[in-house]
């Protein structure tokens, strides 16, 4: 859909007058935000006709199969004409089919609970933990642990479980019963060089369990690879130790795959790189690539059984609903999205193109001292910028913002840690759609090279 030139000015004026933009400082909104009108693959066009290469998948890592997928639009259209909605208390054709297709990709998992945002999927998981505590542990095992630098969503309780101090600032008081433990970013090792960092960082979780009392801790929620907190890959041995500690203290392991799920990191799910078995998995963004809002909380059969009522216990089942979790367009879009990922081998492409992107970052690192660390898995990669490589002092966020800004002027959209962690908003992030080609990867490197040269000379 192209917007006529004379419409653009009026739309921009209406937008400025009435739309309250997400996570945008007021001054930036007043200056005007872009008006995007069309997308195809990784390419995006604004109302001025300027073309961008989008390495952010819609700003927040959503459009895994790329823009302009008519086959998803057609599947949604067909489903909406047949039946648009009935509450999730009933069965629907796309709901049943997508749940089956999803479970097929997640050995060991069994049940799919539908809702419509990542925050909501995590809220469902938290409610399950709380209800399991109430039903089976006299309410005592109700605490939920989360990790410094992870993010789990925007609602007050999801923020209560988020380890990003700037995200939380001014929104308290928070929901009680959520407890933080230290991050596992080896580049910023807190324990000294003579430790086995992965094991030591996992033991930091055990220390918190013991301090709180294992009989009070019901679950831990973790991102498989931390996203907005700075693209943090788990160090060697970390996940194995985390699972071992969870088993030791009977703590449920919730893995937040809202970003990493559906191929982003070169596997169907991020946790599958590490061979661990979760108790619950949440997902959202790439599930339907933004063609419809959908999120899922997936559990083992054991969790489902813990929340099944005994005879005569009329409150004993999971008494939860998500109105829009019943929209049939969502699983219809998700089914087609999954079909595309499979038919076009996009998971493999994510792994392959991710390696090329990281190799490109390494060449940039050899050239630009402002690059302190590069890291990533599949098509989810980051560059940590430093003022001094020796001391690893982070650059001021205005510097990473300037690099991202220059990339945008040059027609490349990238992301960056933004109002997340005080003093450490210094990581650029890259999550292009999984359909990316070698030439497009090379273009990202070329533009970045120019931006670093101009901004950080
Ligand atoms: C890891 C993670 N979990 C949860 C969320 C929240 O998802 P939503 O914005 O769909 O509520 C996000 C959003 O960026 C996220 O990055």
From TrEMBL:
Q: Does the keyword RNA-binding apply?
A: no
Q: Is Phosphoprotein set as a keyword in this record?
A: no
**Keywords, ordered alphabetically:** Aminotransferase, Pyridoxal phosphate, Pyruvate, Transferase
> What are its GO cellular component terms?
cytosol
Pfam family of the protein (one): Aminotran_3
Q: Which cofactor does it need?
A: pyridoxal 5'-phosphate
Q: Which Gene3D superfamilies match?
A: Aspartate Aminotransferase, domain 1, Type I PLP-dependent aspartate aminotransferase-like (Major domain)
Among the GO molecular function terms of this UniProt record, one is: transaminase activity
InterPro entries (UniProt xref): Aminotrans_3, Aminotrans_3_PPA_site, PyrdxlP-dep_Trfase, PyrdxlP-dep_Trfase_major, PyrdxlP-dep_Trfase_small
The record's annotation in PANTHER family points to: AMINOTRANSFERASE, AMINOTRANSFERASE CLASS-III
Q: Which family does it belong to?
A: Belongs to the class-III pyridoxal-phosphate-dependent aminotransferase family.
The protein here is known as: Taurine-pyruvate aminotransferase
């Amino acid at each position: 859909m192209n917007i006529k030139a004379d419409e653009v000015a009026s739309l921009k004026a209406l937008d400025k007058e009435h739309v309250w933009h997400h996570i945008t400082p007021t001054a930036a909104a007043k200056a005007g935000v872009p008006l995007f009108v069309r997308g195809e693959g990784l390419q995006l066009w604004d109302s001025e006709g300027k073309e961008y290469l989008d390495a952010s998948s819609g700003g927040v890592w959503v459009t895994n199969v790329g823009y302009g997928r008519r086959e998803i639009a057609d599947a949604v259209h067909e489903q909406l004409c047949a039946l648009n909605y009935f509450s999730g208390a009933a069965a629907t054709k796309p709901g049943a089919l997508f749940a089956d297709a999803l479970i097929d990709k997640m050995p060991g998992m069994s049940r799919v609970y539908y809702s419509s945002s990542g925050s909501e999927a995590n809220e469902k998981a938290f409610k399950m933990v709380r209800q399991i505590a109430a039903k089976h542990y006299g309410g005592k095992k109700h605490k939920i642990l989360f990790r410094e630098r992870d993010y789990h969503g925007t609602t007050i309780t999801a923020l209560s479980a988020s380890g990003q101090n700037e995200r939380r600032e001014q929104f308290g008081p928070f929901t009680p019963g959520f407890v933080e433990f230290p991050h596992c970013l080896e580049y910023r090792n807190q324990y000294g060089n003579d430790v086995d960092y992965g094991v030591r960082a996992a033991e930091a979780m055990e220390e918190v369990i013991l301090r709180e009392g294992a009989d009070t801790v019901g679950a831990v929620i973790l991102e498989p690879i931390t996203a907005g907190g700075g693209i943090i890959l788990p160090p060697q041995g970390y996940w194995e130790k985390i699972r071992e500690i969870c088993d030791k203290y009977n703590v449920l392991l919730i893995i937040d795959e809202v970003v990493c799920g559906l191929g982003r990191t070169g596997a169907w799910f991020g946790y599958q790189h590490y061979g661990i078995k979760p108790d619950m998995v949440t997902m959202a963004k790439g599930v339907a690539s933004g063609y419809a809002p959908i999120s899922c909380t997936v559990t083992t059969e054991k969790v489902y059984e813990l929340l099944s009522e005994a005879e005569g216990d009329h409150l004993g089942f999971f008494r939860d609903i998500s109105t829009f979790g019943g929209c049939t367009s969502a699983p219809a879009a998700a089914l087609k999205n999954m079909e595309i990922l499979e038919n076009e081998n996009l998971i493999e492409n994510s792994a392959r193109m991710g390696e090329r992107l990281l190799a490109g970052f390494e060449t940039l690192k050899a050239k630009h001292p402002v690059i302190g660390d590069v890291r990533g898995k599949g098509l989810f990669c980051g560059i940590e910028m430093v003022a001094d490589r020796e001391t690893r002092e982070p650059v001021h966020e205005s510097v990473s913002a300037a690099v991202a800004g220059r990339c945008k002027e040059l027609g490349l959209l990238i992301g960056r840690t933004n109002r997340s962690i005080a003093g450490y908003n210094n990581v650029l992030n890259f999550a292009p759609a999984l359909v990316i080609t070698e030439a497009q990867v090379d273009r990202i490197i070329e533009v970045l090279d120019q931006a670093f040269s101009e901004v950080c000379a």
